Amino acid sequence: MVSAVENSLAMPILFLALCSLCLSCSAFSPQDYSDALEKSILFYEGQRPGKLPSNQLLKWRADSGLHDGSSYHVDLVGGYYDAGDNVKFGLPMAFTTTSLAWSVIEFGSSMSARARMPEPPSVGVGDPNMDHHCWERPEDMDIPRNVYKDELLCGASWIHRASQNVSYLAYIQSNGHTLGAEDDDFSFSWDDKQAGTKVVLSKGFLEKNIQEFQLYKAHSDNYICSLIPGSPNFQVQYTPRYPLHVQNRGSSLQSVHAQPGKIDCNYGFQYLYSGSPNPNVLVGAVLRGPDSKDNFADNRNNYQQSEPATYFNAPFVGALAFFAAQSNAN
Ligand SMILES: *[C@@H]1O[C@H](CO)[C@@H](O)[C@H](O)[C@H]1NC(C)=O
Asked: Which of 152, 160, 164, 167 to probe ligand 1 with, by most ligand atoms within 8 A of CB?
């Protein structure tokens, strides 16, 4: 997992990348968008803990984390590893789940049956400090698996949208000030869902004419517009080239199928620092990407550029579904 501050910097870049996609639609063929959509979802198979299903497509992964929660006498097996590490975080995964569910709500009709969405996750499992002192495959994990808790106002907005239950309207009205009505938002991230929550509420005004939510439309407009002018503008290209040194434990170490003997915590670090390409391709991973000067080192130990995360892919899925459907219709 990247820190909240770093993550909040990363998200505007993702959104800029999406803006660039809009501006350069002609560079993409309809098949490119469909392919990118499938791969953006396939990525989640590489992040799967627990007992893998027989239809798992990324064959280099195997079962792992089969005892999660057992020290607390609860079953927390399953879910998704967060990023390049072997931890299942609560808040980041909540953001990922929210973004993916939102993608389905907005663009689900544009997604083919082949786009198999990830299944809902469990709560947070693992100790990030201990995990970051190990470079080992998920299958070899033997460090403690702790449990974390999770948050709310974003949830109330979604429940209200789904149920129109006035209790949630009242809750949002009395707690909406924590959304920072007067504050500008500069990012939408797992650590700060305010911008997204305001967009959900503004849709309540636009689509259901809920006057109480009118002020959130102005906030959402400001947020979207703030991302474009004067920002570094990354062009997104569709090319056969991709990063070879993705900062992800499972992808960078030999598959347990190829090398069944345990690779322990410290021994694995030589692979983190190695210049060799990852033995297993983490298909579809969106990485944190180039620096502000558009340089990308493709260096595994440079997590600021080379780490993937479930919450980097998640906002792309809906956008790719939209563009795939647009270009298929044309
Ligand atoms: C609305 O939500 C509240 C809080 O969850 C619940 O107690 C109440 O039964 C709900 N009302 C309806 C009509 O579903």
From this structure: 167
Residue 135 CA, distance from chain mean position = 21
Q: What is the dihedral of CA 309, 92, 1, 88, to 10 degrees?
A: -90
pLDDT digits (tens, 9 = 90+) for 75-121: 989 999 999 999 888 889 989 998 999 999 999 888 876 566 676 55
Distances (CA, A) of 310 to 24, 285, 313: 25, 8, 6
What is the rounded distance in angstroms from the CA atom of residue 136 to the CA atom of residue 22? Answer: 39
Residues in the chain, overall count: 330
* CA of 158 relative to ligand 1 center, distance in Å: 14
Multiple choice CATH, 4-150+231-329, 1.10.357.10, 1.50.10.10, 1.20.1050.10, 1.10.10.10: 1.50.10.10
Question: pLDDT tens-digit profile of 122-178?
Answer: 557 777 778 888 888 888 877 665 445 376 888 899 999 999 999 999 999 998 887
At 123, the amino acid letter reads V
User: C-alpha angle with apex 213: 210 to 217, nearest 5 degrees?
Assistant: 115
Contact 193, 158 (CB under 8 A): no
What is the residue extent of each domain of the chain? 4-150+231-329
In the block, which residue shows the tokens 């970051």?
132
pLDDT of residue 243: 96
Q: What pLDDT band is residue 5 in, cutting at 50, 70 and 90?
A: very low
Q: What's the half-sphere exposure (Cβ side, CA atoms, 13 Å) at 171? A: 15
Kindly tell me the burial class for residue 235, based on how many C-beta atoms sit within 10 Å of its own C-beta (0-12, 13-18, 19 or more): exposed
Active-site positions? 298, 307
CA of 203 to the centre of ligand 1 (A): 22
Residue 48 corresponds to which amino acid? Answer: R
DSSP 74: S
Task: Tell me what the mean pLDDT of segment 281-289 comes to.
Answer: 95
Q: Which residue has the higher pLDDT, 311 or 120?
A: 311
